[in-house]
Amino acid sequence: MDLIASVVNWKELGDTVIAAFVGAMAVALVASLGIWGMTRYVDLHQEGRTASAGLALAVGGLGLLATIGIIVLGIYLMVSK
């Protein structure tokens, strides 16, 4: 039983699973914000509500930038280790 315990480092495996879950949730959240903001912008712009459309566009743009930032950070971390 000691051989199996030394082959699998459960703490590092658990840390990896938790980090992957948190990363996946972060990507899903910011990508959803980007999609929501852009589609809401189109709807509000067609209705003539330019101020609300501008705020929705800002949320969509921030979501897009955050998505790109997370992807770049992930690639950097994979290459540096």
Write the layout of secondary structure elements.
Elements lengths: L1 H6 L2 H38 L2 H31 L1
Short account of what is shown:
With about 80 residues, the chain is mainly α.
Walk me through what this model shows:
This protein is an all-alpha fold. It has helices at residues 2-7, 10-47, 50-80. 7% of the residues are buried.
Tell me, what's the shape? elongated
How many whole angstroms does the radius of gyration measure? 20 Å
Helix content: over 70%
How many alpha or pi helices? 3
Spell the H/E element sequence: HHH
Biggest sheet descriptor: none
Nearest-integer average pLDDT: 88
How many distinct beta strands? 0
Strand content: under 5%
Structural class: mainly alpha
The separation of the N and C termini measures 31 Å
Poorly predicted sequence stretches spanning 5 or more consecutive residues:
none
Short descriptors:
81 residues, mainly alpha, 0% strand, elongated
